[in-house]
Amino acid sequence: MQPELTLNAICERIIQAPLGPHRRLIAISGPPGSGKSTTAEHLAGLLNAQDEKTAVIPMDGFHLDNRLLKEDGNREKKGAPQTFDATGFVRLVAALQSNEAVIYPLFDRAQDIAIAGAGRVNVDVKTVVIEGNYVLLKNQPWQALSKHWSLTISLAISRDVLKKRLIKRWLDQGLTKADAEIRAIDNDLRNADFIITNEQFADIKLTRNPK
Predict the structure, then answer these.
(1) How many domains does the chain divide into?
(2) Are 31 and 157 in contact (CB under 8 A)?
(3) HEC readout, 121-163
(4) Residues contacting 28, CB < 8 A, separation 6+
(5) Spatial contact of 5 and 206, defined as CB atoms under 8 Å apart
(6) Domain CATH for 16
(7) For a 10 Å CB count at each end of the chain, is N or C smaller?
(8) Any domain includes 59
(9) Cα separations (Å) of 174 from 70, 116, 163, 169?
(10) CA distance 29 to 36
(11) What mean pLDDT is reported for the chain?
């Protein structure tokens, strides 16, 4: 078995990936708590240090508002595929292929709300790292994203480690231990299982956090 790639080696793969047509779009997928955001930011930092203008877009900005989730009976399922504006996300990714600046929403975890127009990819950015639970799903409308990716990365993590991380995440947000365990087991881990079952094959698969 070959050793897993380091972040520097992954950066080389990214730099060699084709522009399509004006930017290279890099997808990072994985269950909630698998380290997508950290990996994306580390990669962007290394690429920018090499004068490869890079931006990071989290999929979280496309969370549906809690009011809509309540109306649809999905408030307790927040984080599942149907609780995102998938169509809007697909449109954003398509727009990133232009040679223009692109505005996108960001999710404020403290307020538990998506904020429109909070992020921007400038014209001079040629590489965009896009991270999210469902960026590599086979299911529609997510599957429409696949034609835009220059390189895809999937993060895998043991269920035990994932469970501990997810419970800690909810504890850090003020939930009791009992409630944190319920949210992690009944919601997050179910979403993780769905991702693992329905994810497309990735160009790079990581089973640990690279250095």
Answers:
(1) 1
(2) yes
(3) ECCCCCEEEEEECCCCECCCCHHHHHHHCCEEEEECCCHHHHH
(4) 36, 39, 40, 43, 129, 130, 131, 132, 135, 153, 154, 155
(5) yes
(6) 3.40.50.300
(7) N
(8) yes
(9) 21, 26, 17, 9
(10) 7
(11) 92
**Residue 179 belongs to a domain:** no
Dihedral of CA 149/121/99/91: which sign? positive
**What is the distance between the alpha carbons of residues 16 and 1, in angstroms, rounded to a whole number?**
24
Q: Which residue has the tokens 């992954």?
A: 10
Average pLDDT over residues 174-179: 87
Give the closest residue to 180 by CA, choosing from 195, 164, 194: 164
In a domain, 13, yes or no: yes
Q: What is the DSSP letter of 82?
A: G
Q: Which two tokens stand for residue 198?
A: 């329905």
Tell me if 75 is assigned to some domain: yes
59 close to 84: Cβ distance less than 8 angstroms:
yes
Distance of alpha carbon 16 from alpha carbon 151, whole angstroms: 10
Q: Is the pLDDT of residue 186 over 70?
A: yes
Provide the pLDDT for residue 208: 62
Closest CA to 30 of 59, 72, 64, 52: 59
What is the span of the domain harbouring residue 122? Answer: 7-158+200-206
- Separation between Cα atoms, residue 135 and residue 127, nearest integer Å: 16
pTM of the model: 0.91
132-175 pLDDT per residue, tens: 999 999 999 999 999 999 999 999 888 888 888 889 988 988 88
